[in-house]
Design a protein that fits this description.
2 copies of one chain form a homodimer. The first copy, chain A, is α/β, with parallel strands linked by helices. The first copy, chain A, has one domain: TIM Barrel (Alpha-Beta Barrel), CATH 3.20.20.70. The first copy, chain A, is 38% helix and 17% strand. Chain A contains 12 helices and 10 strands. The first copy, chain A, has an 8-stranded parallel β-barrel, surrounded by 8 helices. Chain A has a two-stranded antiparallel ribbon with strand order 6-7. In chain A, helix 2 packs across helix 12.
Protein backbone atom coordinates (compact mmCIF):
# COMPACT_ATOMS: atom_id res chain seq x y z
CA UNK A 1 0.00 0.00 0.00
CA UNK A 2 1.17 3.52 -0.79
CA UNK A 3 2.18 5.59 2.24
CA UNK A 4 0.08 8.60 3.17
CA UNK A 5 1.33 11.95 1.89
CA UNK A 6 1.75 13.12 5.49
CA UNK A 7 4.02 10.17 6.28
CA UNK A 8 6.09 10.69 3.14
CA UNK A 9 6.51 14.35 4.07
CA UNK A 10 7.51 13.57 7.65
CA UNK A 11 10.10 11.05 6.43
CA UNK A 12 11.71 13.78 4.31
CA UNK A 13 11.50 16.29 7.18
CA UNK A 14 13.28 13.90 9.54
CA UNK A 15 15.89 12.90 6.99
CA UNK A 16 16.80 16.51 6.18
CA UNK A 17 16.17 17.92 9.66
CA UNK A 18 14.31 20.71 7.95
CA UNK A 19 10.77 22.03 7.69
CA UNK A 20 11.36 24.42 4.82
CA UNK A 21 9.54 24.41 1.50
CA UNK A 22 11.28 26.08 -1.44
CA UNK A 23 8.94 27.83 -3.84
CA UNK A 24 9.92 27.68 -7.49
CA UNK A 25 8.44 30.84 -8.98
CA UNK A 26 10.41 31.78 -12.08
CA UNK A 27 10.17 35.45 -12.91
CA UNK A 28 11.63 36.81 -16.13
CA UNK A 29 13.08 40.32 -16.15
CA UNK A 30 12.01 42.62 -13.35
CA UNK A 31 13.04 43.41 -9.81
CA UNK A 32 13.53 39.79 -8.76
CA UNK A 33 14.17 37.55 -11.74
CA UNK A 34 16.20 34.70 -13.17
CA UNK A 35 19.71 35.63 -14.35
CA UNK A 36 19.97 37.29 -17.75
CA UNK A 37 22.64 34.88 -18.96
CA UNK A 38 20.10 32.04 -18.85
CA UNK A 39 17.94 33.96 -21.30
CA UNK A 40 20.61 34.49 -23.96
CA UNK A 41 19.35 31.61 -26.15
CA UNK A 42 15.68 32.39 -25.59
CA UNK A 43 13.38 33.64 -28.32
CA UNK A 44 9.74 33.22 -27.37
CA UNK A 45 10.21 29.93 -25.58
CA UNK A 46 11.13 30.18 -21.92
CA UNK A 47 10.88 26.45 -21.17
CA UNK A 48 14.59 25.71 -21.43
CA UNK A 49 15.70 28.73 -19.40
CA UNK A 50 13.18 28.05 -16.63
CA UNK A 51 14.00 24.36 -16.55
CA UNK A 52 17.75 25.09 -16.34
CA UNK A 53 17.10 27.63 -13.56
CA UNK A 54 14.92 25.23 -11.57
CA UNK A 55 17.23 22.25 -12.05
CA UNK A 56 20.19 24.17 -10.67
CA UNK A 57 18.15 25.62 -7.78
CA UNK A 58 16.95 22.11 -6.89
CA UNK A 59 20.45 20.60 -7.07
CA UNK A 60 21.73 23.29 -4.71
CA UNK A 61 18.86 23.24 -2.20
CA UNK A 62 17.95 19.55 -2.08
CA UNK A 63 20.03 18.70 1.04
CA UNK A 64 17.87 21.13 3.06
CA UNK A 65 14.51 20.82 1.33
CA UNK A 66 11.91 18.12 2.02
CA UNK A 67 9.31 19.69 -0.26
CA UNK A 68 9.24 22.14 -3.19
CA UNK A 69 6.35 24.35 -4.21
CA UNK A 70 6.23 25.48 -7.84
CA UNK A 71 3.57 28.18 -8.32
CA UNK A 72 1.74 27.36 -11.56
CA UNK A 73 0.80 31.00 -12.26
CA UNK A 74 4.36 31.78 -13.38
CA UNK A 75 4.57 28.76 -15.67
CA UNK A 76 1.25 29.76 -17.20
CA UNK A 77 2.44 33.34 -17.60
CA UNK A 78 5.53 32.28 -19.54
CA UNK A 79 3.80 29.44 -21.37
CA UNK A 80 6.26 27.08 -19.70
CA UNK A 81 4.15 24.17 -18.54
CA UNK A 82 6.68 21.76 -20.06
CA UNK A 83 9.31 23.17 -17.70
CA UNK A 84 6.86 22.73 -14.82
CA UNK A 85 6.27 19.06 -15.67
CA UNK A 86 10.01 18.39 -15.96
CA UNK A 87 10.63 20.24 -12.69
CA UNK A 88 8.09 18.17 -10.79
CA UNK A 89 9.55 14.94 -12.20
CA UNK A 90 13.06 16.06 -11.20
CA UNK A 91 12.02 16.94 -7.64
CA UNK A 92 10.51 13.48 -7.22
CA UNK A 93 13.46 11.73 -8.86
CA UNK A 94 15.66 13.42 -6.23
CA UNK A 95 13.46 12.00 -3.45
CA UNK A 96 11.77 15.24 -2.36
CA UNK A 97 8.06 16.02 -2.67
CA UNK A 98 6.41 18.39 -5.15
CA UNK A 99 3.51 20.54 -3.94
CA UNK A 100 1.86 22.32 -6.85
CA UNK A 101 0.63 25.72 -5.72
CA UNK A 102 -2.42 26.19 -7.92
CA UNK A 103 -5.30 27.08 -5.55
CA UNK A 104 -7.71 25.33 -7.89
CA UNK A 105 -11.42 25.27 -7.08
CA UNK A 106 -14.72 24.56 -8.79
CA UNK A 107 -17.82 22.36 -8.69
CA UNK A 108 -17.14 18.62 -8.44
CA UNK A 109 -17.11 17.65 -12.12
CA UNK A 110 -14.72 20.49 -12.97
CA UNK A 111 -12.52 19.94 -9.92
CA UNK A 112 -12.16 16.35 -11.13
CA UNK A 113 -10.63 17.69 -14.37
CA UNK A 114 -8.22 19.87 -12.39
CA UNK A 115 -7.30 16.95 -10.12
CA UNK A 116 -6.60 14.80 -13.16
CA UNK A 117 -4.23 17.44 -14.53
CA UNK A 118 -2.45 17.99 -11.21
CA UNK A 119 -2.01 14.39 -10.12
CA UNK A 120 -2.08 12.34 -13.33
CA UNK A 121 -0.58 14.63 -15.95
CA UNK A 122 1.75 16.87 -13.93
CA UNK A 123 2.20 14.12 -11.30
CA UNK A 124 2.50 16.44 -8.31
CA UNK A 125 2.52 14.93 -4.80
CA UNK A 126 0.17 17.55 -3.38
CA UNK A 127 -1.80 20.62 -4.42
CA UNK A 128 -3.22 23.77 -2.86
CA UNK A 129 -7.01 24.13 -3.18
CA UNK A 130 -9.41 26.96 -2.36
CA UNK A 131 -12.33 25.34 -0.52
CA UNK A 132 -14.89 28.16 -0.79
CA UNK A 133 -17.11 25.60 -2.62
CA UNK A 134 -17.28 23.26 0.39
CA UNK A 135 -16.49 19.56 0.24
CA UNK A 136 -17.86 19.04 -3.33
CA UNK A 137 -14.99 20.99 -4.81
CA UNK A 138 -12.32 19.39 -2.62
CA UNK A 139 -13.45 15.76 -2.81
CA UNK A 140 -12.09 15.09 -6.34
CA UNK A 141 -8.61 16.01 -5.07
CA UNK A 142 -9.04 13.95 -1.88
CA UNK A 143 -9.92 10.94 -4.02
CA UNK A 144 -6.16 10.70 -4.64
CA UNK A 145 -5.27 10.40 -0.92
CA UNK A 146 -5.05 6.58 -1.11
CA UNK A 147 -2.43 7.05 -3.83
CA UNK A 148 -0.25 9.02 -1.42
CA UNK A 149 -1.34 12.48 -2.55
CA UNK A 150 -1.93 15.48 -0.29
CA UNK A 151 -4.26 18.50 -0.38
CA UNK A 152 -3.73 21.87 1.31
CA UNK A 153 -6.69 24.23 1.59
CA UNK A 154 -6.62 27.98 2.24
CA UNK A 155 -7.37 29.09 5.78
CA UNK A 156 -5.71 32.42 6.62
CA UNK A 157 -3.67 33.70 3.70
CA UNK A 158 -0.52 35.80 4.04
CA UNK A 159 -1.62 38.91 2.09
CA UNK A 160 -2.54 42.25 3.74
CA UNK A 161 -6.26 42.14 2.77
CA UNK A 162 -6.81 38.54 3.84
CA UNK A 163 -8.88 39.77 6.77
CA UNK A 164 -11.43 41.46 4.54
CA UNK A 165 -13.33 38.21 4.18
CA UNK A 166 -11.41 35.58 6.16
CA UNK A 167 -11.61 37.50 9.45
CA UNK A 168 -15.39 37.97 9.43
CA UNK A 169 -17.03 36.36 12.43
CA UNK A 170 -19.32 33.58 11.30
CA UNK A 171 -22.01 31.47 12.91
CA UNK A 172 -22.90 27.97 11.86
CA UNK A 173 -26.66 27.75 12.34
CA UNK A 174 -27.80 24.76 10.31
CA UNK A 175 -31.37 24.95 11.59
CA UNK A 176 -31.94 28.28 9.84
CA UNK A 177 -33.75 27.89 6.52
CA UNK A 178 -31.75 28.69 3.40
CA UNK A 179 -34.37 31.34 2.54
CA UNK A 180 -33.32 33.52 5.48
CA UNK A 181 -30.49 35.86 4.54
CA UNK A 182 -30.59 38.20 7.56
CA UNK A 183 -31.86 37.98 11.18
CA UNK A 184 -31.16 38.95 14.82
CA UNK A 185 -29.31 36.72 17.30
CA UNK A 186 -28.66 36.89 21.04
CA UNK A 187 -25.84 35.38 23.10
CA UNK A 188 -24.35 33.09 20.52
CA UNK A 189 -20.72 32.12 20.02
CA UNK A 190 -19.12 33.30 16.83
CA UNK A 191 -15.76 32.42 15.31
CA UNK A 192 -13.90 33.92 12.38
CA UNK A 193 -14.31 32.49 8.87
CA UNK A 194 -10.76 31.14 8.80
CA UNK A 195 -11.45 29.17 11.98
CA UNK A 196 -14.63 27.76 10.44
CA UNK A 197 -12.60 26.71 7.42
CA UNK A 198 -10.08 25.08 9.77
CA UNK A 199 -12.93 23.19 11.46
CA UNK A 200 -14.17 21.96 8.09
CA UNK A 201 -10.60 20.87 7.29
CA UNK A 202 -10.38 18.98 10.57
CA UNK A 203 -13.76 17.30 10.07
CA UNK A 204 -13.11 16.30 6.45
CA UNK A 205 -9.59 15.08 7.14
CA UNK A 206 -10.65 12.65 9.86
CA UNK A 207 -13.48 11.07 7.87
CA UNK A 208 -12.51 7.69 6.35
CA UNK A 209 -15.35 8.16 3.82
CA UNK A 210 -14.03 11.49 2.57
CA UNK A 211 -10.36 10.55 2.76
CA UNK A 212 -10.90 7.06 1.31
CA UNK A 213 -8.48 5.51 3.78
CA UNK A 214 -9.33 3.53 6.90
CA UNK A 215 -6.92 5.46 9.11
CA UNK A 216 -6.73 9.06 7.87
CA UNK A 217 -4.30 9.97 10.68
CA UNK A 218 -0.88 8.47 9.99
CA UNK A 219 1.36 6.92 12.65
CA UNK A 220 3.17 10.24 13.13
CA UNK A 221 -0.12 11.97 13.91
CA UNK A 222 -1.04 13.82 10.72
CA UNK A 223 -3.60 13.51 7.92
CA UNK A 224 -3.08 14.20 4.22
CA UNK A 225 -5.29 17.31 4.25
CA UNK A 226 -3.64 20.48 5.49
CA UNK A 227 -4.19 24.22 5.49
CA UNK A 228 -2.43 27.45 4.52
CA UNK A 229 -1.77 30.04 7.23
CA UNK A 230 0.50 33.01 6.49
CA UNK A 231 3.63 33.56 8.62
CA UNK A 232 2.46 37.17 8.62
CA UNK A 233 -0.37 36.17 11.02
CA UNK A 234 1.24 34.36 14.02
CA UNK A 235 -1.72 34.82 16.37
CA UNK A 236 -4.06 33.21 13.88
CA UNK A 237 -1.50 30.46 13.32
CA UNK A 238 -1.60 29.62 17.02
CA UNK A 239 -5.42 29.47 16.99
CA UNK A 240 -5.48 27.16 13.98
CA UNK A 241 -2.75 24.89 15.38
CA UNK A 242 -4.91 24.49 18.51
CA UNK A 243 -8.09 23.82 16.48
CA UNK A 244 -6.53 21.20 14.22
CA UNK A 245 -3.67 19.26 15.84
CA UNK A 246 -3.64 16.55 13.16
CA UNK A 247 -3.40 18.77 10.09
CA UNK A 248 -0.21 20.02 8.45
CA UNK A 249 0.05 23.78 8.02
CA UNK A 250 1.76 25.31 5.01
CA UNK A 251 3.16 28.65 6.18
CA UNK A 252 3.97 31.02 3.33
CA UNK A 253 5.13 34.57 3.83
CA UNK A 254 8.58 33.93 5.32
CA UNK A 255 11.22 36.16 3.75
CA UNK A 256 10.03 38.55 1.02
CA UNK A 257 6.62 38.97 2.65
CA UNK A 258 8.08 39.74 6.09
CA UNK A 259 7.44 36.59 8.18
CA UNK A 260 10.16 35.71 10.73
CA UNK A 261 11.36 32.42 12.25
CA UNK A 262 9.82 33.34 15.63
CA UNK A 263 6.44 33.58 13.89
CA UNK A 264 6.64 29.90 12.99
CA UNK A 265 6.93 28.54 16.54
CA UNK A 266 3.17 28.39 17.04
CA UNK A 267 2.74 26.31 13.90
CA UNK A 268 4.38 23.12 15.18
CA UNK A 269 3.70 20.68 17.98
CA UNK A 270 6.15 19.95 20.83
CA UNK A 271 8.05 17.57 18.60
CA UNK A 272 8.57 20.23 15.92
CA UNK A 273 6.13 18.61 13.48
CA UNK A 274 3.05 20.02 11.78
CA UNK A 275 4.29 22.84 9.60
CA UNK A 276 6.25 23.50 6.46
CA UNK A 277 7.49 27.02 5.95
CA UNK A 278 7.76 28.25 2.39
CA UNK A 279 9.82 30.97 0.78
CA UNK A 280 10.15 31.68 -2.91
CA UNK A 281 11.72 34.99 -3.92
CA UNK A 282 14.18 35.05 -1.00
CA UNK A 283 15.63 31.69 -2.11
CA UNK A 284 15.17 31.79 -5.90
CA UNK A 285 16.70 35.23 -6.25
CA UNK A 286 19.06 35.21 -3.26
CA UNK A 287 21.89 36.16 -5.65
CA UNK A 288 20.24 39.58 -6.03
CA UNK A 289 19.56 40.16 -2.33
CA UNK A 290 21.56 42.43 -0.06
CA UNK A 291 22.41 39.44 2.15
CA UNK A 292 24.02 37.32 -0.55
CA UNK A 293 24.92 39.46 -3.56
CA UNK A 294 28.42 40.31 -2.36
CA UNK A 295 29.12 36.65 -1.69
CA UNK A 296 27.83 35.13 -4.94
CA UNK A 297 28.01 36.17 -8.59
CA UNK A 298 25.06 35.98 -10.97
CA UNK A 299 26.61 32.82 -12.47
CA UNK A 300 26.48 31.26 -9.00
CA UNK A 301 22.78 32.05 -8.46
CA UNK A 302 22.26 28.41 -7.50
CA UNK A 303 24.94 28.50 -4.82
CA UNK A 304 23.31 31.64 -3.41
CA UNK A 305 19.98 29.79 -3.33
CA UNK A 306 21.59 26.80 -1.62
CA UNK A 307 23.12 29.03 1.04
CA UNK A 308 19.81 30.89 1.52
CA UNK A 309 17.94 27.58 1.90
CA UNK A 310 20.48 26.31 4.43
CA UNK A 311 20.33 29.59 6.35
CA UNK A 312 16.51 29.49 6.38
CA UNK A 313 16.52 25.88 7.57
CA UNK A 314 18.96 26.75 10.36
CA UNK A 315 17.16 30.00 11.26
CA UNK A 316 13.86 28.17 11.80
CA UNK A 317 15.53 25.25 13.55
CA UNK A 318 17.30 27.61 15.96
CA UNK A 319 14.03 29.41 16.77
CA UNK A 320 12.24 26.10 17.39
CA UNK A 321 15.13 24.70 19.46
CA UNK A 322 15.11 27.85 21.62
CA UNK A 323 11.40 27.27 22.18
CA UNK A 324 12.06 23.63 23.10
CA UNK A 325 10.21 22.40 20.02
CA UNK A 326 12.76 20.43 18.00
CA UNK A 327 12.70 16.67 18.54
CA UNK A 328 12.90 15.42 14.98
CA UNK B 1 -11.17 55.00 -25.07
CA UNK B 2 -12.03 51.32 -24.80
CA UNK B 3 -15.64 50.59 -23.77
CA UNK B 4 -16.27 48.98 -20.41
CA UNK B 5 -16.69 45.21 -20.41
CA UNK B 6 -20.24 45.64 -19.11
CA UNK B 7 -21.15 47.89 -22.04
CA UNK B 8 -19.62 45.53 -24.58
CA UNK B 9 -21.59 42.67 -23.04
CA UNK B 10 -24.86 44.61 -23.07
CA UNK B 11 -24.36 45.54 -26.73
CA UNK B 12 -24.06 41.82 -27.58
CA UNK B 13 -27.08 40.97 -25.41
CA UNK B 14 -29.23 43.55 -27.17
CA UNK B 15 -28.03 42.59 -30.62
CA UNK B 16 -28.74 38.90 -30.10
CA UNK B 17 -31.77 39.38 -27.83
CA UNK B 18 -30.24 36.76 -25.62
CA UNK B 19 -28.75 36.46 -22.15
CA UNK B 20 -27.25 33.01 -22.54
CA UNK B 21 -23.61 32.09 -22.09
CA UNK B 22 -22.40 28.91 -23.79
CA UNK B 23 -19.80 26.99 -21.83
CA UNK B 24 -17.11 25.28 -23.91
CA UNK B 25 -16.05 22.33 -21.78
CA UNK B 26 -14.60 19.65 -24.03
CA UNK B 27 -14.80 16.21 -22.51
CA UNK B 28 -13.14 13.24 -24.19
CA UNK B 29 -14.77 9.80 -23.92
CA UNK B 30 -17.28 9.32 -21.12
CA UNK B 31 -20.98 9.88 -20.53
CA UNK B 32 -21.07 13.34 -22.12
CA UNK B 33 -18.23 13.80 -24.60
CA UNK B 34 -17.19 15.08 -27.99
CA UNK B 35 -18.07 12.80 -30.94
CA UNK B 36 -15.79 9.82 -31.53
CA UNK B 37 -15.36 10.64 -35.22
CA UNK B 38 -13.47 13.83 -34.27
CA UNK B 39 -10.95 11.70 -32.40
CA UNK B 40 -10.08 9.36 -35.28
CA UNK B 41 -6.87 11.22 -36.17
CA UNK B 42 -5.87 11.82 -32.57
CA UNK B 43 -2.83 10.22 -30.98
CA UNK B 44 -1.82 12.00 -27.80
CA UNK B 45 -2.63 15.48 -29.04
CA UNK B 46 -6.21 16.58 -28.51
CA UNK B 47 -5.70 20.17 -29.66
CA UNK B 48 -7.02 19.66 -33.19
CA UNK B 49 -10.07 17.64 -32.16
CA UNK B 50 -11.04 20.12 -29.45
CA UNK B 51 -10.48 23.11 -31.71
CA UNK B 52 -12.60 21.54 -34.47
CA UNK B 53 -15.32 20.73 -31.92
CA UNK B 54 -15.34 24.25 -30.49
CA UNK B 55 -15.19 25.97 -33.87
CA UNK B 56 -18.25 24.10 -35.09
CA UNK B 57 -20.13 24.67 -31.83
CA UNK B 58 -19.36 28.40 -32.03
CA UNK B 59 -20.43 28.65 -35.69
CA UNK B 60 -23.75 27.01 -34.85
CA UNK B 61 -24.51 28.93 -31.65
CA UNK B 62 -23.16 32.41 -32.43
CA UNK B 63 -26.53 33.92 -33.52
CA UNK B 64 -27.90 33.29 -30.02
CA UNK B 65 -24.79 33.73 -27.89
CA UNK B 66 -23.41 37.06 -26.63
CA UNK B 67 -20.72 35.43 -24.50
CA UNK B 68 -18.90 32.09 -24.33
CA UNK B 69 -17.31 30.54 -21.28
CA UNK B 70 -14.50 28.04 -21.86
CA UNK B 71 -13.60 26.25 -18.63
CA UNK B 72 -9.81 26.05 -18.49
CA UNK B 73 -9.77 22.87 -16.35
CA UNK B 74 -10.70 20.74 -19.37
CA UNK B 75 -8.04 22.29 -21.58
CA UNK B 76 -5.47 21.67 -18.84
CA UNK B 77 -6.69 18.10 -18.42
CA UNK B 78 -6.19 17.33 -22.13
CA UNK B 79 -3.06 19.45 -22.48
CA UNK B 80 -4.96 21.52 -25.05
CA UNK B 81 -4.17 25.11 -24.15
CA UNK B 82 -3.40 25.83 -27.82
CA UNK B 83 -6.99 24.91 -28.65
CA UNK B 84 -8.15 27.21 -25.85
CA UNK B 85 -6.16 30.15 -27.21
CA UNK B 86 -7.48 29.58 -30.73
CA UNK B 87 -11.03 29.23 -29.40
CA UNK B 88 -10.87 32.54 -27.54
CA UNK B 89 -9.49 34.29 -30.62
CA UNK B 90 -12.25 32.80 -32.76
CA UNK B 91 -15.02 33.87 -30.37
CA UNK B 92 -13.73 37.44 -30.44
CA UNK B 93 -13.22 37.41 -34.21
CA UNK B 94 -16.91 36.52 -34.49
CA UNK B 95 -17.85 39.53 -32.35
CA UNK B 96 -18.87 37.68 -29.18
CA UNK B 97 -17.10 37.89 -25.81
CA UNK B 98 -14.89 35.24 -24.21
CA UNK B 99 -15.16 34.71 -20.45
CA UNK B 100 -12.43 32.38 -19.22
CA UNK B 101 -13.75 30.28 -16.37
CA UNK B 102 -10.60 29.78 -14.29
CA UNK B 103 -11.53 30.81 -10.73
CA UNK B 104 -7.94 31.95 -10.21
CA UNK B 105 -6.88 33.38 -6.85
CA UNK B 106 -3.71 34.16 -4.92
CA UNK B 107 -1.76 36.95 -3.22
CA UNK B 108 -1.27 40.07 -5.35
CA UNK B 109 2.09 39.33 -6.99
CA UNK B 110 0.93 35.86 -8.03
CA UNK B 111 -2.52 37.05 -9.14
CA UNK B 112 -0.68 39.51 -11.39
CA UNK B 113 0.97 36.56 -13.15
CA UNK B 114 -2.41 34.85 -13.59
CA UNK B 115 -3.96 38.09 -14.89
CA UNK B 116 -1.13 38.43 -17.40
CA UNK B 117 -1.80 34.94 -18.70
CA UNK B 118 -5.58 35.40 -18.87
CA UNK B 119 -5.71 38.85 -20.45
CA UNK B 120 -2.42 39.24 -22.31
CA UNK B 121 -1.52 35.73 -23.43
CA UNK B 122 -4.92 34.03 -23.79
CA UNK B 123 -6.59 37.41 -24.50
CA UNK B 124 -9.89 36.63 -22.78
CA UNK B 125 -12.44 39.43 -22.31
CA UNK B 126 -13.26 38.43 -18.75
CA UNK B 127 -12.31 35.89 -16.10
CA UNK B 128 -13.83 34.25 -13.04
CA UNK B 129 -11.90 34.84 -9.80
CA UNK B 130 -12.26 33.42 -6.29
CA UNK B 131 -12.01 36.41 -3.93
CA UNK B 132 -11.36 34.58 -0.66
CA UNK B 133 -8.09 36.59 -0.48
CA UNK B 134 -9.92 39.96 -0.36
CA UNK B 135 -9.13 42.86 -2.67
CA UNK B 136 -5.35 42.13 -2.89
CA UNK B 137 -5.97 39.03 -4.94
CA UNK B 138 -8.61 40.61 -7.19
CA UNK B 139 -6.93 43.96 -7.85
CA UNK B 140 -4.40 42.64 -10.44
CA UNK B 141 -7.34 41.45 -12.55
CA UNK B 142 -9.26 44.71 -12.05
CA UNK B 143 -6.22 46.62 -13.30
CA UNK B 144 -7.38 45.53 -16.77
CA UNK B 145 -10.84 47.13 -16.44
CA UNK B 146 -9.74 50.28 -18.35
CA UNK B 147 -8.78 47.98 -21.23
CA UNK B 148 -12.37 46.73 -21.43
CA UNK B 149 -11.87 43.57 -19.39
CA UNK B 150 -14.32 42.11 -16.86
CA UNK B 151 -13.99 40.13 -13.64
CA UNK B 152 -16.58 37.82 -12.09
CA UNK B 153 -16.09 36.72 -8.48
CA UNK B 154 -17.70 33.76 -6.70
CA UNK B 155 -20.64 34.55 -4.43
CA UNK B 156 -23.04 31.59 -4.14
CA UNK B 157 -21.88 28.67 -6.25
CA UNK B 158 -24.21 26.16 -7.88
CA UNK B 159 -22.92 22.96 -6.25
CA UNK B 160 -24.80 21.04 -3.50
CA UNK B 161 -22.23 21.73 -0.73
CA UNK B 162 -21.88 25.44 -1.47
CA UNK B 163 -23.73 26.21 1.74
CA UNK B 164 -21.14 24.49 3.91
CA UNK B 165 -19.06 27.66 4.00
CA UNK B 166 -20.88 30.25 1.89
CA UNK B 167 -24.09 30.06 3.94
CA UNK B 168 -22.46 30.70 7.32
CA UNK B 169 -23.76 33.84 8.97
CA UNK B 170 -20.98 36.37 9.34
CA UNK B 171 -20.51 39.62 11.21
CA UNK B 172 -18.26 42.42 10.08
CA UNK B 173 -16.83 43.85 13.30
CA UNK B 174 -13.75 45.84 12.30
CA UNK B 175 -13.24 47.23 15.80
CA UNK B 176 -12.43 43.78 17.18
CA UNK B 177 -8.68 43.15 17.46
CA UNK B 178 -7.19 40.56 15.13
CA UNK B 179 -6.01 38.64 18.20
CA UNK B 180 -9.57 37.75 19.20
CA UNK B 181 -10.74 34.56 17.53
CA UNK B 182 -13.91 33.90 19.59
CA UNK B 183 -16.30 36.03 21.71
CA UNK B 184 -19.95 36.59 22.71
CA UNK B 185 -22.28 39.07 21.00
CA UNK B 186 -25.78 40.37 21.73
CA UNK B 187 -28.40 41.78 19.36
CA UNK B 188 -26.27 42.20 16.30
CA UNK B 189 -27.28 41.79 12.68
CA UNK B 190 -25.65 38.94 10.83
CA UNK B 191 -25.69 38.11 7.12
CA UNK B 192 -24.51 35.06 5.28
CA UNK B 193 -20.98 34.87 3.86
CA UNK B 194 -22.17 35.02 0.28
CA UNK B 195 -24.01 38.29 1.03
CA UNK B 196 -20.84 39.71 2.60
CA UNK B 197 -18.94 38.75 -0.54
CA UNK B 198 -21.65 40.47 -2.60
CA UNK B 199 -21.24 43.61 -0.48
CA UNK B 200 -17.48 43.55 -1.06
CA UNK B 201 -18.16 43.16 -4.79
CA UNK B 202 -20.50 46.15 -4.73
CA UNK B 203 -18.05 48.30 -2.78
CA UNK B 204 -15.03 47.41 -4.92
CA UNK B 205 -16.92 47.79 -8.20
CA UNK B 206 -18.04 51.35 -7.47
CA UNK B 207 -14.61 52.61 -6.40
CA UNK B 208 -12.85 54.60 -9.17
CA UNK B 209 -9.54 53.88 -7.40
CA UNK B 210 -10.01 50.12 -7.46
CA UNK B 211 -11.62 49.99 -10.91
CA UNK B 212 -9.18 52.50 -12.44
CA UNK B 213 -11.97 54.25 -14.34
CA UNK B 214 -13.65 57.54 -13.46
CA UNK B 215 -17.17 56.17 -13.95
CA UNK B 216 -17.20 52.49 -12.96
CA UNK B 217 -20.94 52.24 -13.69
CA UNK B 218 -21.53 52.31 -17.45
CA UNK B 219 -24.40 54.17 -19.14
CA UNK B 220 -26.54 51.04 -19.07
CA UNK B 221 -26.16 50.79 -15.31
CA UNK B 222 -23.55 48.07 -14.77
CA UNK B 223 -19.92 47.83 -13.65
CA UNK B 224 -17.24 45.48 -14.99
CA UNK B 225 -17.09 43.45 -11.79
CA UNK B 226 -19.78 40.80 -11.41
CA UNK B 227 -20.55 37.74 -9.32
CA UNK B 228 -21.42 34.06 -9.72
CA UNK B 229 -24.73 32.82 -8.28
CA UNK B 230 -25.98 29.33 -9.16
CA UNK B 231 -29.39 28.92 -10.85
CA UNK B 232 -29.84 26.15 -8.32
CA UNK B 233 -30.26 28.82 -5.59
CA UNK B 234 -33.04 31.23 -6.75
CA UNK B 235 -33.79 32.68 -3.29
CA UNK B 236 -30.15 33.62 -2.83
CA UNK B 237 -30.11 35.04 -6.35
CA UNK B 238 -32.95 37.39 -5.43
CA UNK B 239 -31.12 38.55 -2.30
CA UNK B 240 -27.90 39.24 -4.21
CA UNK B 241 -29.72 41.05 -7.04
CA UNK B 242 -31.25 43.34 -4.38
CA UNK B 243 -27.87 43.92 -2.68
CA UNK B 244 -25.98 44.76 -5.83
CA UNK B 245 -28.14 46.34 -8.56
CA UNK B 246 -25.14 47.50 -10.62
CA UNK B 247 -23.28 44.18 -10.84
CA UNK B 248 -23.73 41.53 -13.52
CA UNK B 249 -24.53 38.05 -12.26
CA UNK B 250 -23.21 34.96 -14.01
CA UNK B 251 -25.76 32.22 -13.37
CA UNK B 252 -24.39 28.72 -13.95
CA UNK B 253 -26.33 25.57 -13.23
CA UNK B 254 -29.02 25.82 -15.94
CA UNK B 255 -29.53 22.50 -17.72
CA UNK B 256 -27.35 19.62 -16.56
CA UNK B 257 -27.23 20.87 -12.97
CA UNK B 258 -31.04 21.32 -12.74
CA UNK B 259 -31.62 25.09 -12.90
CA UNK B 260 -34.79 26.19 -14.75
CA UNK B 261 -35.73 29.36 -16.68
CA UNK B 262 -38.10 30.45 -13.89
CA UNK B 263 -35.14 30.42 -11.51
CA UNK B 264 -33.45 33.15 -13.57
CA UNK B 265 -36.21 35.76 -13.24
CA UNK B 266 -34.83 37.13 -9.97
CA UNK B 267 -31.43 37.68 -11.54
CA UNK B 268 -32.38 40.53 -13.88
CA UNK B 269 -33.76 44.04 -13.44
CA UNK B 270 -37.10 45.22 -14.91
CA UNK B 271 -35.43 45.76 -18.27
CA UNK B 272 -34.16 42.19 -18.41
CA UNK B 273 -30.53 43.18 -17.85
CA UNK B 274 -28.06 42.09 -15.19
CA UNK B 275 -27.55 38.37 -15.72
CA UNK B 276 -26.01 35.91 -18.12
CA UNK B 277 -27.13 32.32 -17.80
CA UNK B 278 -24.61 29.65 -18.64
CA UNK B 279 -24.95 26.06 -19.73
CA UNK B 280 -22.18 23.77 -20.89
CA UNK B 281 -22.97 20.07 -21.10
CA UNK B 282 -26.60 20.58 -22.20
CA UNK B 283 -25.41 22.60 -25.23
CA UNK B 284 -22.03 21.00 -26.03
CA UNK B 285 -23.38 17.47 -25.94
CA UNK B 286 -26.99 18.14 -26.97
CA UNK B 287 -26.56 15.50 -29.71
CA UNK B 288 -26.41 12.85 -26.96
CA UNK B 289 -29.38 14.14 -24.93
CA UNK B 290 -32.85 12.61 -24.92
CA UNK B 291 -34.29 15.92 -26.22
CA UNK B 292 -32.17 16.13 -29.35
CA UNK B 293 -30.63 12.74 -30.15
CA UNK B 294 -33.50 11.56 -32.36
CA UNK B 295 -33.39 14.81 -34.31
CA UNK B 296 -29.64 15.06 -34.94
CA UNK B 297 -26.93 12.53 -35.82
CA UNK B 298 -23.51 12.49 -34.20
CA UNK B 299 -22.10 14.13 -37.35
CA UNK B 300 -24.53 17.00 -36.78
CA UNK B 301 -23.48 17.59 -33.17
CA UNK B 302 -23.04 21.26 -33.99
CA UNK B 303 -26.58 21.62 -35.33
CA UNK B 304 -27.88 19.97 -32.15
CA UNK B 305 -25.88 22.51 -30.11
CA UNK B 306 -27.26 25.37 -32.21
CA UNK B 307 -30.81 24.19 -31.67
CA UNK B 308 -30.19 23.70 -27.92
CA UNK B 309 -28.74 27.23 -27.64
CA UNK B 310 -31.70 28.72 -29.52
CA UNK B 311 -34.15 26.77 -27.34
CA UNK B 312 -32.37 27.90 -24.19
CA UNK B 313 -32.38 31.54 -25.36
CA UNK B 314 -36.11 31.32 -26.13
CA UNK B 315 -36.92 29.42 -22.93
CA UNK B 316 -35.33 32.11 -20.76
CA UNK B 317 -36.78 34.93 -22.86
CA UNK B 318 -40.29 33.46 -22.54
CA UNK B 319 -39.95 33.16 -18.77
CA UNK B 320 -38.73 36.76 -18.47
CA UNK B 321 -41.43 38.05 -20.84
CA UNK B 322 -44.11 36.30 -18.77
CA UNK B 323 -42.69 38.06 -15.71
CA UNK B 324 -42.77 41.41 -17.53
CA UNK B 325 -38.97 41.64 -17.52
CA UNK B 326 -37.90 41.75 -21.16
CA UNK B 327 -37.32 45.24 -22.58
CA UNK B 328 -34.06 44.74 -24.43
Amino acid sequence: MTSLFSERLIAQIKQKQSIICVGLDPRIRGKSSIPEFLLSQVNDNYNDAIWEFNRRIIDATIPFTPIYKPQIAFYEKYNALDALKKTIAYIREKGALALLDAKRNDIGSTSAAYAHNVFEFLEADAVTVNSYFGIDGVQPFLNYVPKGKGVIILLKTSNPSSGEFQDLFALDLPEISADITEFQVKNVTVVRNFIHMARLMKKWSQSPTIMHVEQPIGKNGFTSLGGVVGATYPTQLKAIRAEAPHNFILIPGYGAQGGKAEDIIQGVNDQGLGAIVSASRSINFAYQSSTYKNQFSEEDFDKAAGQAAKDMRDDIRTALESAGKWKL
